[in-house]
Amino acid sequence: MGVDASLLDDLQWRGLLAHSTDLDALRDALSAGCVRYYVGFDPTAPSLHMGNLVQLVTARRLQEAGHTPYLLVGGATGMIGDPRDSGERTLNPTETVREWVARLTAQVSPFVSLEGDNAATVVDNYEWTKDLSTLEFLRDVGKHFPVNRMLARETVRRRLEQGGISYTEFSYVLLQSYDFLRLHRQHGVSLQFGGSDQWGNITGGAELIRRADGATVHAFATPLITKADGTKYGKTEGGALWLDPDMMSPYAFHQFWLNVEDAKVGEMLRIFTFLDRARIEEIEAEHAEKPFLRLAQKVLADEVTTLVHGAEETEQAKAAAKALFGGGDLAGLTGPTLAAALAGTGTTTVQGDPPPVVDLLVDTGLCKSKGEARRVVGEGGAYLNNERVNDVDAVPGPDDLVGGTWLVLRRGKKQFAGVEVVGS
């Protein structure tokens, strides 16, 4: 695989360079040959999220340009946690952190290639910190960190103004910096990148290498992704935009990207997709001409969902939305996809054989009484699995269950409800 000299230009065009140590030196290094680089992910939750995805796609871009990735899952730093803007972190039990390390290791691996001349390596910083003595750490690492510079860090300063910060969180920068030093010494890693909120930690590592080994290394930070009004992205009504399908369904994930605001969709296409510049600019032009078609959002949702969850789940998500909101065929949908799609419409559980449709219309709240339900059926306004119900005495049978357990009721064009049939 050849090294791509235009990589830095592409990263800049995509808006992925918020900070850097020395752009000219970084450009020279990336153009000269294969650079070994690393990015870290702390296991502070059982899944990665949207912010981590920025780093994963950036790591992949560098690898595809011919450079060698080291993905670090912080089994050690995850036990402490990077200082928050306010309040001390709750320290998670060791066994929980180890479980999350395993989950995140499995999560990051598919985003890069583990084969070839520049195959990715996944490492855990617990391996080189678990036997590190306090005296050794203070002598070899701590002596290179002036306290006045640590106190000047924005997060630390803010915490001090609010009442204080523990030594545990205060010392986090030393641990992350030590990671860079170890990877530099053992594997020749000469570039670290991460989110802009990590810039102080990242430059701390570069400075430690300069002070301890007299070597010059490189670093850059990606920007924080925000909405048009400046508020943080990645939060939904159910919490963070998780990458784990068990924490956020592929359907809900796809819907999130479909609903990205017009002012941000171009930025999202550049950051999160691997479409080339010509194609993205073409999409942006078409979107600007006919924004009501939401072409840019559709492309974005399909590309990112396929990247994270695969093409099959993307097609399921699209089919579910089409079936529910476009009156399409529900037959090909899986139970989990349908459950996710119906989550926002309201669902009811039925034990055993389902009752008549009239009863279900009442049970789901689509009708207030059986009398009203009968009138709705008689007027042709009741649907079961997108098929009009013409018989007021109709009873759903086993063949009506979609995905093995679900019935989809609809009143009129837009009022939906799901019924999960269990134990039938």
Which stretches of 5+ consecutive residues score pLDDT under 50?
A: none
| Adjacency order of strands in the biggest sheet | 1-6-5-2-3-4
Cα separation of the termini: 57 Å
Mean pLDDT: 91
The global form is elongated
Describe the largest sheet.
6 strands, mixed
Computed over alpha carbons, the radius of gyration is: 26 Å
Write down how many β-strands occur, each being a DSSP E stretch of 2 or more residues: 13
Helix run count: 19
Helical coverage, percent range: 40-55%
SS-derived structural category: alpha/beta
Q: What fraction of residues sit in β-strands?
A: 5-15%
Give a written overview of the molecule.
By secondary structure, the protein is of the alpha/beta class. The protein is 46% helix and 13% strand. It has helices at residues 7-13, 23-32, 50-64, 94-108, 126-129, 134-140, 147-151, 154-162, 167-170, 172-187, 199-213, 250-258, 262-272, 277-289, 295-309, 311-326, 335-342, 357-363, 370-378; strands spanning 19-20, 36-41, 68-73, 121-124, 191-195, 218-222, 235-236, 239-240, 347-351, 382-384, 387-388, 406-411, 415-422. A 6-stranded mixed sheet has the order 1-6-5-2-3-4, sandwiched between helices. Strand 2 (36-41), helix 3 and strand 3 form a beta-alpha-beta unit. The longest helix is centred in the middle third of the chain and has 16 residues, at 172-187.
